[in-house]
Amino acid sequence: MHIGQIFKFLLALIIATLVMLAIRTFIFTIYTVPNQDWRPDFDAGDRVIVNRISNAPILKGDIIAFTDTVDATTNIGRVLYLPGDTIKYGKELYRIPLICCRRCGCKDCKLYLVRIGKQRVLVHKHQIIGKAKKIYHLKF
């Protein structure tokens, strides 16, 4: 092999690696479910792919990835209730607000009730990374 051919090969390899990293960072991301606390939706070791650029509306039953504002971790959960839905807690009825707050100024500021294993949390729309889809499971 000549030096020119080696240089072209290395340049193509570097460009392909950069494109792959850009796609994984900005378009699709793969997460691994860390432990059994995520049941009934996931088992430890499940892999999910997150579409970061989809503009499709979030519906009940969708699996989403979102960031936790407290410790900046990424969580995966299933959407149980949408903005405007009424939920029953004990004997009381509560309505998920159509607008999460007036001070953030976001036109599309909404809250979703999401299940993470046995927990239920309210997630702001701006915390959502994207819709997720389970792709495979690695048994460890």
TrEMBL record:
It catalyses: Cleavage of hydrophobic, N-terminal signal or leader sequences from secreted and periplasmic proteins. The chain crosses the membrane at residues 6-31. It is found in: Membrane. Keywords: Hydrolase, Membrane, Protease, Transmembrane, Transmembrane helix. Its EC number is 3.4.21.89. It is a single-pass type II membrane protein. InterPro entries: LexA/Signal_pep-like_sf, Pept_S26A_signal_pept_1, Peptidase_S26. Residues 7-94 form the Peptidase S26 domain. Its main location: membrane. Belongs to the peptidase S26 family. This is Signal peptidase I. It comes from Segatella bryantii (Prevotella bryantii). The gene is lepB.
